[in-house]
Design goal:
Strand order of the largest sheet: 8-9-7-10-11-14-15
Shape: globular
Helix content: 25-40%
Largest sheet: 7 strands, parallel
Strand content: 15-25%
Oligomer: single chain
Radius of gyration: 21 Å
Number of helices: 12
Number of strands: 17
Structural class: alpha/beta
Amino acid sequence: MAQVHPSGTGPARAVRRRVRGPVRALLAMLLTALVVGGAVPYMSGGGRSYLSYLVLAEQEDAAGAALAGVEARAAGGQVVQEYPQIGAVLAYATWAFADRVRARPGIAAVGATRTAPVVGPPRALDGAGDFTAGTGRGGRSSADRRENSTVTVPDPVERDAWNLTMVGASGTGTGDSSAQQNRPAGPAPEALRKVLVAVLDSGVDDTHPDLRAAVDPKASASCADGRPDARTGAWRPDPGVGEGGHGTHVAGIVGAARDGHGVIGVAPGVRIAAVRLLGPLGQYYAENIVCGMLWAADHGAKAINNSYFADPWKYNCPEDRDQAALIAAVGRAAAYAQRKGAVVVASAGNDGQDLGAARTDERSPNDRVSGPAQSRYLGTECIRLPGELPGVVTVSAVNRDGQPSSYTNYGRGRISLAAPGGDPDGGSQGAIVSDWPGGQYAALAGTSMAAAHVTGAVAVAAALHPDYDSGRLAALLATAAAAGCPPGPYACGGRQFFGAGMLVLPR
């Protein structure tokens, strides 16, 4: 059965990004018990409860990060990671910490990144915290795991890839039309091999046959607790955390090898930096995102794929001081990546909501251990992170007939491009078939999949135009998409579903 991944909720049958209701509450209580028992990697806090905080200095550089660290420690916080690229630090502290630091000169913002406390900061880890780790290419060790919660499909043997045909990719079993045959060839594998893209997600199984040659271990890491960890295999999915196969599926869409087996990616031959964000408690916290963005940017990624939303708030509102700090921190990281030459790509979400209108959020905070979610009535100032940040290429989903998928978020001025996301009820013929851990394949649907197509297209554009910066690469995709804009009342005339238009690979 096809599943909508959860960059939000989708139609009634769509699989949600998080476990629901009583099951969710039970899982949260079990996870809390694991934390207390020491199974989750947090240090003992002497019986106290800690939250994680991002502390941002007014000065967005190494000097700012140093100041943020000094003030955080002076207020009783334990600094576990500095982000000198953006003038910020990650600290763990007790409840009164934020107000003390906010009052200090030179501090721009402080925000708790979670609502559920832990028993202490993450344990010390040899080698963690170094953004300069990893240069060139290196070896990898084997790791066997499989995800049992998703129905897998037989090896597609590179056939019936309707999604690739839709965006103009060549070399698939369905690409036998005269238009496809006459399409100019894309960049050579040698040119794509010079391009690095980053998949920030739940982790990537680089032992999958389609991805063995694609994942660059020296550009890959885990940021699952806000610290870059480049130890061998740290970027792979955590077998103890749900939805761990999602990142492997996304990576396959981006760059699975053309080898006669499995699937073909949009940009076969591209190098992939696998950056695991999904932490041991099953959350994409803001510090994980900041760490991943900075790691990818510093390792030369030309595109950064973000098929998730920031936890614990589905939408972050600037009138809340904690959430304002999270917006600022992730915004600084995304802007840094753009300045370094990366196109930041993000899924629009699977809630079927108009991002340009007032809306409700009945699921936040999603890291709570008990009680119902808040019912929040949100204005247009509340944004989804990182998809609604300035300059981010935000991607909506279409199904096989080219119409907006029922689950996709939309909004005039909020969507950059549309791309194939598939139908959650369409099986292997209507969803997107891609790689799954353990050498398997799965059919999923969602804006997560749509974003991955755009990331692959950025790789193609960068291989064709290696001198282009992030702005020119994004503009090239927008121009090509406008030419591929389908007619009709729900298409590009209104722009709310398609933005500039339908993704078409540049040639």
